[in-house]
Amino acid sequence: MTTSLAGPEIPLGKTLPVPGEHAAAVDTGRVADLVSQLLIALGEDPDREGLLGTPDRVAAWWSDFLSPDDAATATSFTESQLNDQLVIVGGMSVWSLCEHHMLPMNLQVTVGYVPDGEVVGLSKFGRIARHFAGRLQVQERFTREIAERLAAVIGHKDLAIVVRGVHLCMSMRGVRMENARTTTVHTGGRLASDPVLNQQFITLAAVQRNTA
Q1: How are beta strands 136-137 and 87-98 bridged, if at all?
Q2: CA–CA distance, 98 with 12 (Å, rounded to integer)
Q3: CA–CA distance from 175 to each of 41, 104, 120, 169, 172 (Å)?
Q4: pLDDT tens across 118-134, in order?
Q5: What is the Cα–Cα distance from 192 to 63, expressed in whole angstroms?
Q6: Per DSSP, what are the bridge partners of residue 76?
Q7: CA-to-CA distance for 88 and 114, rounded, in angstroms?
Q8: Could you give the CA distance from residue 185 to residue 3 in angstroms, rounded to a whole number?
């Protein structure tokens, strides 16, 4: 397992370019044609019984995968008495694609934050994760993008994120290490400066991962 500490922190209100954020619509006809050409180059016959319709199905999948639900709309609820409670949401599993080899990676996401008069709707965390997973990605950037979006939603940086990834580009090619896992961590605000909060998050995030 390798651990990467994400940083430096991104100032609130600053928007960085996001690869894949404004990608053009997928040309499914062209993709299907390219898949047919790939099958031929691999020595296959795209017109044989088992492969009939495969190029169209692959093209439809690419279009669906690269068009995730928008995560822009925030749902928060006023809870004026909550300003010191650590909230942790775990068990979120999303699939993305390594942009270096275009092979799948499974990303297990755990998020923690300290509410400041408002709590975020729980489904929002999963929507944010799926939104940034639905593109050609690298795990390190995925972690940072979730942190930036969540900081914008809650209006401060008191948050932490742990992402644990299984990368097929490492499991089924190259060194073929099936048990390899990559962990990326982002901490901000009080979750970075307060050792008690930081340790609480790390401990509870590990518990959630081990009981998932």
Answers
A1: parallel
A2: 28
A3: 25, 16, 41, 9, 8
A4: 889 999 999 999 999 99
A5: 38
A6: 120
A7: 9
A8: 7
- Kindly give the pairing relationship between strand 76-78 and strand 118-120: antiparallel
Report residue 32 CA to chain centroid gap: 27
* pLDDT of amino acid 76: 75
Q: How many CA atoms lie within 13 A of 80 on its CB side?
A: 0
In this structure, what DSSP letter does residue 209 have?
A: H
* Each residue's pLDDT tens digit, 32-42: 999 999 999 99
In Å, what is the CA distance from 128 to each residue of 14, 24, 73? 18, 20, 10
Tokens 């099936």: give the residue: 178
**Amino acid occupying residue 126:** G
Between CA 108 and CA 105 the distance in angstroms is: 10
